[in-house]
Automatic annotation (TrEMBL):
Keyword flag Flavoprotein: yes
EC number: 1.-.-.-
Species the sequence originates in: Streptomyces bikiniensis
The keyword Oxidoreductase appears for this protein: yes
Domain called Acyl-CoA dehydrogenase/oxidase N-terminal: residue spans: 7-119
Lineage of origin: Bacteria, Bacillati, Actinomycetota, Actinomycetes, Kitasatosporales
Acyl-CoA dehydrogenase/oxidase C-terminal domain span: 235-383
Cofactor(s) needed: FAD
Membership in a protein family: Belongs to the acyl-CoA dehydrogenase family.
Residue runs in coiled coils: none
Listed name of the protein: Acyl-CoA dehydrogenase family protein
Length: 385
């Protein structure tokens, strides 16, 4: 089936990214994997390549485009090579939409040039210990000072991807208590400078997968946040968070599809080269049937991911559609990657093989951005159930 989602510009970008990965990432990726994070200077290289500025207006150093298709190419190419770009995905997919949607003209002048160059890496701090998907249950507070010049931030966040290298973090905090009618009331967003006194990074979390993406615990003890770093209006944070969930869930869906596609590629290559009982593993009917079934699932996931991408770019992707795409693509990837690892036999369990890392990386897709169970609830509600 011929895809229509990408044009010549996207394919030229694909060639650039593929060459960059081969030259700058593949040779050192084992070192990143062992260290548990990509080095900080790598993000400057991504900035020089223009990756951070694709959707940033030209006046701030970006390309001025309004599309997620270049991000989609990135998902496909990093998965194809069995690598990841550290925490940079959060920088672009999660943080940038909030800056573009909420930042004032002055804030954009302060934030975006450094965002584009990689001088300031951004992360999003929403999740807290014990709250998980229940964002409204957050306990972190931000109290306005008596003189009205700053907020005083206190609390803790966990599972913050990009949290180790982040220079600014969009922190969700309570500026007022929840009301009896609405427990979501009173949440605000702040662009917090990580060099602020009282801001600290706790553990760099030891994850099952996504080993090169730094994930941290954050703590705030009387951190002074200037009022100039409040994003949007005070108290409206929850509605802002909901506004960007569709794009986040599309990103997870598309990334999962790309991982499944890569898994089939890795397995096909392995079974053609590996010999058992005097024959290539690819010779056996079970191998052919397994890979054929996996390819059919990947084809379906690609169609779902592409449709969601087109809807997202058109500004028409609904929360239910995003949830459906995430649920379907992540469940497909789970099945496909598991079957492709099985075809590798014992070698599939070794981290030196891309399929093993892919297996571990993929597992979180059904958890973060809203669990599969949350996705089912959203879909069911849209069905009137």
């Amino acid at each position: 089936m011929r895809r229509t989602v990408f044009n010549e510009d996207h394919e030229a970008f694909r060639e650039t990214i593929r060459a960059f990965i081969e030259a700058e990432v593949v040779p050192v990726y084992d070192e990143w994997f062992a260290a548990g994070q990509a080095p900080r200077d790598f993000y400057y290289k991504l900035g020089e390549l223009g990756i951070f500025g694709i959707n940033v207006p030209e006046e701030f150093g970006g390309a001025g485009l309004d599309t997620h298709k270049f991000e989609a190419v990135l998902y496909e190419e990093t998965s194809r090579a069995g690598v990841q770009f550290g925490g940079s995905g959060v920088h672009v997919l999660l943080a940038l939409p909030y800056i573009k949607m909420l930042a004032t003209g002055d804030q954009k002048k302060r934030y975006l040039p450094k965002f584009v160059s990689g001088e300031e890496m951004w992360a999003l701090a929403m999740t807290e210990p014990g709250t998980g998907s229940d964002v409204a249950g957050m306990k972190t507070t931000a109290k306005l000072s008596e003189d009205g010049t700053h907020y005083v931030l206190n609390g803790a966040k966990t599972f913050i991807t990009g949290g180790v290298h982040a220079d600014r973090v969009i922190v969700c905090a309570r500026t007022s208590a929840p009301s009896a009618e609405d427990r979501r009331f009173g949440i605000s967003l702040f662009a917090v400078d990580t060099k602020s006194e009282g801001y600290s990074i706790g553990r760099k979390l030891d994850k099952l997968g996504l080993r090169t993406s730094d994930t941290a615990e954050l703590a705030f003890v009387d951190v002074k946040v200037p009022v100039e770093d409040l994003l949007g209006e005070e108290g409206k944070g929850f509605s802002y968070l909901g506004h960007n969930l569709a794009s986040e869930r599309w990103g997870i869906a598309f990334g999962a599809y790309a991982q499944a596609k890569a898994a089939v590629r890795f397995a096909k290559q392995y079974v053609q080269e590996r010999t058992v009982f005097g024959k290539p593993v690819a010779h056996f009917q079970n191998t052919k049937f397994e890979l054929a079934a996996c390819q059919a699932e990947v084809d379906a996931a690609e169609a779902v991911a592409d449709r969601a991408l087109e809807a997202l770019d058109a500004g028409e992707l609904t929360p239910a559609e995003a949830a459906s795409a995430k649920l379907f693509c992540t469940e497909v990837a789970h099945r496909v990657i598991d079957r492709c690892l099985q075809l590798h036999g014992g070698y599939g369990y070794m981290n030196e093989y891309p399929i093993a890392r892919l297996y571990a990386d993929n597992r979180v897709n059904r958890i973060y951005g809203g669990t599969s169970e949350i996705m089912k609830s959203i879909i069911a509600k849209s069905m009137g159930l």
